[in-house]
Amino acid sequence: MDKPMHPLLFRGMAIEFRLRDLFSPPGKTLAEVGIRPGSVVLDFGCGPGGYSMAAAEQVGASGKVYALDIHPLAIRAVRRRAAKRALTNIETILSDRATGLSGGCGDVALLYDTLHDAGDRKGILEELHRVLKADGLLSFRDHRAQKDDLLSTIPGTGLFRPARKGERTYTFWKTP
After folding, report:
1. Structural domain of 58
2. In the beta sheet, which residues pair with residue 111?
3. What residues form DSSP beta bridges with 165?
4. N or C: which end of the chain has fewer CB within 10 A?
5. Cα–Cα distance, 32 to 159 (Å, whole number)
6. Contact 37, 65 (CB under 8 A)
7. 61: CATH
């Protein structure tokens, strides 16, 4: 079981991510994914919620975003930001891996800047596979992961197959 980082480290990371979001807006990154209105999105390892907010705006009132993180400060940050923006289509999940979601309910899973810190990478990918619909997409981005690590970890499980490489993300299809 993974453990949350120290609160001071989390606060520093949150500041870093907010600065990143100023120069590289999450909406531009998510444009590569093709999230549509009405979609169900899981932002796994949501951190302070930059991608969760952008996804909630893209899915609209008829869609849903689940923002999962292991850190209680992340969950509080997402709730606060969603309330400030009057976004009612975001639900937070405090967990290290288990989402508690029904199998086959998600259209897209976002796995951004998380996998490099995970102890049980295969377990996380299994949970994302379980949650996604048959034609679901996994969108991956991790500035700390090496390309070789990326190519061996995700498709290497047999759970996902490469779909496309964007400018900012890698996209994978769920395998049957």
Report:
1. 7-174
2. 44, 140
3. 170
4. C
5. 21
6. no
7. 3.40.50.150
- pTM beyond cutoff 0.85: yes
Residues written for the chain: 176
- The 10s digit of each residue's pLDDT in 18-74 is 777 778 889 999 999 999 999 999 999 999 999 999 999 999 999 999 999 999 999
pLDDT tens, residue by residue, 73-101: 999 999 999 999 999 999 999 998 999 99
- For the record, the structure tokens of 29 come out as 């990154």
Number of domains within the chain: 1
Question: How many Å from the N-terminal Cα to the C-terminal Cα in the chain?
Answer: 27
Alpha-carbon span 7 to 123, nearest angstrom: 25
| Chain Cα centroid distance, residue 151 | 18
- Show the tokens assigned to 109: 């899973």
